[in-house]
């Protein structure tokens, strides 16, 4: 299939999440009790206390975390040549509701019945996390994210982890592993996902997280191209918007 047709209405995304509070003791009493129940079922080989485990692990659970950054990117073509280009930017902020409303506004610029979101492990993480946090923040889901009750073949969104699995659902491969396998430059030269909560709360460096998130989206798009048997976008044709 022609790449232009394949990439039409595909929006590549990646989210960065942190614990909802900087520390366990900032949770109200009711949510502290709920986290202690949750922590009892989390694998904890180092026997970390629930209040320390909150700082380390809460970010991956939509009930106890929040979104601080969403990277978005899309392939496009200039009229001057036939080379694909890729533009990526990141939406970020301390106010999660404002961030999600900005993201919703961006999504609704696309035809909702044709928009294809693509993320790595998106079906199990990014897509449901965004939906849950929108609901928590009292935001009506855009049509493209109204996934509940739909049959799998009715959902257009794509997941590069799913594409790599080929139906082998006992297998999990991180984005960075597949990037290394396909010779795609890593996004982990500065920080990794494990560092995001610390960089956000301790270093208060949201711009650093924004840069990292954008690079993850670049890697995601390049992997998507390789999994669809297309050439990757040349480095000089990648535009990183502020």
From TrEMBL:
**UniProt cross-references to Pfam families, sorted A to Z:** DNA_pol_B_exo2
Gene3D superfamilies, alphabetically? Ribonuclease H-like superfamily/Ribonuclease H
Q: What domain of life does the native source organism fall in?
A: Bacteria
The molecular function GO annotations come to: nucleic acid binding
Q: What protein does this entry describe?
A: Predicted 3'-5' exonuclease PolB-like domain-containing protein
Q: Which organism is it from?
A: Runella defluvii
The Predicted 3'-5' exonuclease PolB-like domain covers: 79-231
